[in-house]
Design goal:
binds magnesium ion, Rossmann fold, binds adenosine-5'-diphosphate, six-stranded mixed β-sheet, alpha/beta, four-stranded antiparallel β-sheet
Amino acid sequence: MIEISNLHKSYKTGANKLHVLKGINFSVQEGELVSIMGSSGSGKSTLLNILGMLDEADEGSYILDGVQIKNLNEKIAAQYRNKFLGFIFQSFNLISYKTALDNVALPLYYQGHPRNERMDRAMSYLEKVGLADWAGHLPNELSGGQKQRVAIARALASDPKVLLADEPTGALDTKTSYEVMDLIQQINDEGRTILVVTHEHDIAQMTKRIVNLKDGLIIEDSLVNQIRAAENV
Ligand code: ADP
Ligand code: MG
């Protein structure tokens, strides 16, 4: 599903150049649940943003579902991103003046689906994350865990091949973090490929494979004896 080789990325800050990714190689098969772990500033978000086609590498190759991503023109890249990738962020990134249902339906609006279909599909995804009763509520009427569930439903609405989550539990307490990871495990059990960025070892342990990032390189890539989230609560 994902194949990257010799990926490099630097940021220019004034006269200085910060070399963040220094030759990353890894691949992810369809259906995997992988965490990318590393301390703050190790380049996790930089890597995830490149995988999510939100940013481009300076060097190296990135093949997503058989397509070389480099040098795609802007329009095709955007279509590709909308069709293949779903995003979940630490800060939820919900639209504050739209209800839970309308937030989930938004990607379907951009994909041009008719209103009835948008609402039906959005509702079914809200049901999936256990929030059908909260469809008409605004984000500020929801708890952190509920907001993240809405964001997960929204990410699923466009039926992406790969779900990319950047510190999805970073703003949540421990119990809620485990519940959100439980949901992520459940979505992966249904066959969806998921990458989770985290700096927390406990969270990474709830995926199937941990890729450890340090000083711009992968220093460890190992399978996890998966702990079910429920066992931790
Ligand atoms: P992580 O997600 O692991 O905390 P990041 O990928 O966000 O790490 O950042 C890696 C390094 O790159 C950090 O030192 C950060 O300050 C720097 N960095 C990230 N984004 C930018 C940017 N847009 N411009 C300049 N430096 C950046
Ligand atoms: Mg980050």
